[in-house]
Task: structure prediction
Amino acid sequence: MDLKLKIWRQASRDAKGKFVDYEVHNISSDASFLEMMDLLNEDLVEKGEEPVAFDHDCREGICGMCSLFINGRPHGPDSAITTCQLHMRKFKDGETIVIEPWRAKPFPVIKDLIVDRSAFDELIQAGGYISVSTGGVPDANAIPVSREKAELAMDAAACIGCGACVAACKNASAMLFVSAKVSQFALLPQGKIEAKERVQKMVAKMDDLGFGNCTNTYACEAECPKEISVTNIARMNREFFVAKIS
Amino acid sequence: MSNRYYSSLTKKYIMALMGLFLFTFLVVHLSINLLLVFDPTRVLFNEAAHFMGTNPFIQIFQWVLFAGFAIHIFYGVVLQIQNWIARGKGYKRKALSEESIFSKYMIYTGIVIFIFLVIHLGNFFVLKMQGRVPEFEHTANAGMEDMGLLVVNLFKNGGYVIFYVILLLIMGFHLDHAFQSAFQSIGWNHRKYTPFIKGLGHFLAIVLTAGFIIIPVIIYYR
Ligand code: HEM
Ligand code: SF4
Ligand code: FES
Result:
């Protein structure tokens, strides 16, 4: 496949960025999107140009490092996958692909396509933890948990913190991410201890960091590589209300 | 505008509750207006309007309603401005994610409803406040105003009918997203009941919009 690329280049956090056009040739339709980016970069290095900076790590859809807003969608034109799991067969030969970084005030661009997602770390620090007593290791089966709750908690815990929800949301809202974290704990007995403080602290942090407000548009759910459900957002709204009035 | 006093979630709660309250108002308002369609003599409508205009409880409630609108609009605008700021520099490629269509335009449909509200109040409420409504000649109930005549006269003007129909359609788009959204915002999402809420939301949006639209249309052609 031959492709035209329109890529956001920005030298540093404060630099003024711009789109630059590139071309790649002879790309296998079985190649992954990031392999295509690697080939482009090899080309650029050979020509003595600066390679395009982009985030990646595991390349198997579990770490949440890869990002990229590809042709108007976070993680590209496939659903329920990360960019590292995206294949070139999803594109047409000769197509122009526009590649942009996540755009949100709390996710500033560091370089080219890499954004600073430490706002998510701050959110976790604000409440995404549980108390654990020191001493002997308790028997994992000693605390009864209903199967339904366990499943829901596991579904919420599947969030890999990639930020696609923020990138997709027209309001750059972090509600899906935060609600997944609130839910994964709130559903289990171990998370109940800090439940009331957690939801209030995480919501306050989310507001402080400058994420937008939810308008129940649900683009987050449509783009989440782990298919986190917006029912988590409703659960968080519920948890928050109960915490506030009690 | 800061989040110091009310968190984003609290604002959404207040907005959602006010929005649902406005829905109940629309249902009552439509029920009364439909009397004009079913009773061309205007007796029922004028009696209802007279009751609404004189009953002390309703008189107080009217201010609660204005407050409801004001709060809903205030937070709607505040949240929207925060949302625009939160994106920062936007995307070059138009976002193509699958999403609820009407939710994207809530602020715009909301502003249209607001403009409509002002004109609508100008058409009826202000004249009534100024005591410029003609007396109803039909009943023995002397001193009753002929609010119905005001409506009928307005909707004999085709331009007004078209204007009302278009603005009511836009209000329908707002309502269609609004109902289920409000339940999600107050944390009411349930495997069993949410499909019903969503269905009810579409139903209400269609019935309210169609209901309000047939009134000027029928009066125009009568
Ligand atoms: C007939 C009158 C109206 C009714 C019944 C109504 C109802 C609603 C409801 C129930 C919601 C959903 C709230 C939520 O999900 O939290 C909503 C959202 C919204 N309304 Fe209204 N509304 C009305 C008029 C207006 C007006 C006059 C404005 C003026 C600007 C407005 C602006 C908005 C905005 C911006 C939203 C989206 C905000 C969000 O979801 O966070 N609305 N409306
Ligand atoms: S909720 Fe989904 S889209 Fe958002 S950070 Fe988690 S995995 Fe990524
Ligand atoms: S690189 Fe780890 S999820 Fe894509």
Q: What stands out?
A: DSSP finds eight helices and seven strands in chain A. Chain A has two domains: 3-111, 119-245.
